[in-house]
Each structure stands twice: as C-alpha cells, then as structure tokens.
C-alpha cells in the first residue's frame, strides 16, 4: 500500500459536510495555490488509474454553494470510483485542516465533461470558513448502530472511529467482518435516500473508497501493520459485494 499522510487522522474528528456556506470569507491566492499543490500529494488506491483534479470558480459549474469547486476527472477503469473516493477524501480531510469547508456535490455538472483526456466524475464545493463552524463533537454525528456495520468482536477501537466516514445521503453502504488478524470489507445495498436509483451503485462505490481511507488511517493510528487485497465487484448487484481484505500482522 502507498503511504497515506497520517495527519489526516485527526481531521476525522473535525471535518463535516457543509451543505450551506456562510459566504463571509474568501480564499486567498496563496490558499488557492496551496490547494492545487495538494492535488499532487494525494495517494491513490489504484496506481494504474489516471486521475486529475481541477479548481474552478463555482460559476463555471451548476453548483449553487461554496466559492469554488474542485472537479475530479478519471480514467474509467476497474475500481476507478473507489479510487476517486479514496483520493478525494484525503483532500476533504486536508481542507478541514486549513479551515476550508467542503461538500461533496454529487449532482453538480460542468460543461467541461472531459479534461486531459479523462472523464468528469464528481465535484466538491469549497469555501473558507471560521474554525468554529467545524464539528466540535463528532460523536453527535448521525450514523448507523455499530452492530449494523461491524460484525465480530475484533478491533473495536477502529470500529468506533471508522463508522464516522461520510457517504452520499448518509447511506453508509459498508459492512466489516472482523475476525482474528483479518478484516473483510463489503459494499452493501441499503436505503438510497434521495439518490436516483440508477446512480446508487455509482455513489456507493465512491463511498466505499472513502471508507477504505478511513479504515487505513485508523489501522495506522493504532500501529496495526496490514496487507490489503482489493476485489473488483464493480458490476455485481448482490446484497453484499466483497471489496477488500486486510490481513493484520500482530
């Protein structure tokens, strides 16, 4: 596995989704450059999938919130949506460390549907906000009971943090089977909330990439050395689709 910046871990407890922005602060030129520089520091889940990030003003998109939008483009290869979720959530956590609010804007559109030979996937709306606007008590976040997403008694210290991973419409489409020195991660079907039926699999695959990032940050924080094996399951429509297995060295 490629090393992910462990400093992202602390931002798990600070980040939140900004569905509304105050509109009272603006990003400076140096902050905008810093964001673009950060694009190059994101670790991929899939090294063989090309991804590009583009920072544009909100007015260049259909988005109605935030000051700027980050457009995410990718090759359409196996597991590319998981890869997008894994990489873009690193950016989400980094933005929180800089007091830049973010919102995954799944229904947003851009006229530039291709860039650098890659296809548009999704966008993130951003805006500078006061630090006080971020989450103060992450435990108040609405999430499924732990018993619905974590089976087995293994690694409760990880389970109690990773469950706060964000997801489209808060659907939390994941399930972990925690055995001895082994974590099996599944993408599961559930309530789709406000998502169009034909887009559920699309968003769920991005969400599971976000979840894998949170899981790996938690493993590293607990000094658990692990080996990861990824499974495609991209076209599978079963209730539970195996996504990854982590073998943990004790």
Description:
- The strands form 2 sheets. Strands 1, 2, 3, 4 and 5 form a 5-stranded antiparallel beta sheet that branches. A 5-stranded mixed beta sheet has the order 6-7-8-10-9.
- The protein has 2 domains: 8-133, NADH Oxidase (3-Layer(aba) Sandwich); 142-249, NADH Oxidase.
- Strand 6, helix 5 (156-162) and strand 7 (174-179) form a beta-alpha-beta unit.
- It contains 6 helices and 10 strands; from the N terminus they run ααββαβββαβαββαββ.
- The protein has helices spanning 8-11, 29-39, 80-97, 146-149, 156-162, 200-221, and strands at 51-57, 68-74, 100-105, 114-115, 118-128, 150-151, 174-179, 182-188, 225-230, 240-249.
- The protein has 250 residues and is α+β, with helices and mostly antiparallel strands.
- It comes from Fumia xinanensis.
- Residues 9-217 form the Putative nitroreductase TM1586 domain.
- InterPro entries: Nitroreductase-like (IPR000415), TM1586_NiRdase (IPR029478).
- This is Nitroreductase.
């Amino acid at each position: 596995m490629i090393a992910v910046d462990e400093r992202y871990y602390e931002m798990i407890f600070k980040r939140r989704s900004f569905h509304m922005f105050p509109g009272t602060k603006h990003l400076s030129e140096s902050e905008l450059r810093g964001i673009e520089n950060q694009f190059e520091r994101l670790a991929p889940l899939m090294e063989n999938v090309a991804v590009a990030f583009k920072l544009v003003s909100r007015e260049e998109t259909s988005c109605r919130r935030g000051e700027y939008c980050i457009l995410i483009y990718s090759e359409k290869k196996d597991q590319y949506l998981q890869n997008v979720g894994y990489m873009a959530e690193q950016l989400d956590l980094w933005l929180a460390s800089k007091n830049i609010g973010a919102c995954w804007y799944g229904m947003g559109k851009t006229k530039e549907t291709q860039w650098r030979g890659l296809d548009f996937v999704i966008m993130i709306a951003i805006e500078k906000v006061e630090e006080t606007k971020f989450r103060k008590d992450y435990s108040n976040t609405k999430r499924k009971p732990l018993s619905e997403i974590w089976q087995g008694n293994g690694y409760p210290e990880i389970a109690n943090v990773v469950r706060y991973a964000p997801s489209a419409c808060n659907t939390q489409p994941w399930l972990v089977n925690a055995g001895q020195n082994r974590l099996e991660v599944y993408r599961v079907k559930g309530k789709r909330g406000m998502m169009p039926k034909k887009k559920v699999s699309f968003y769920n695959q991005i969400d599971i990439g976000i979840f894998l990032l949170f899981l790996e940050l938690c493993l590293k924080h607990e000094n658990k050395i692990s080996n990861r094996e990824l499974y495609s399951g991209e076209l599978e429509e079963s209730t539970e689709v195996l996504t990854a297995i982590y073998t943990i060295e004790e």
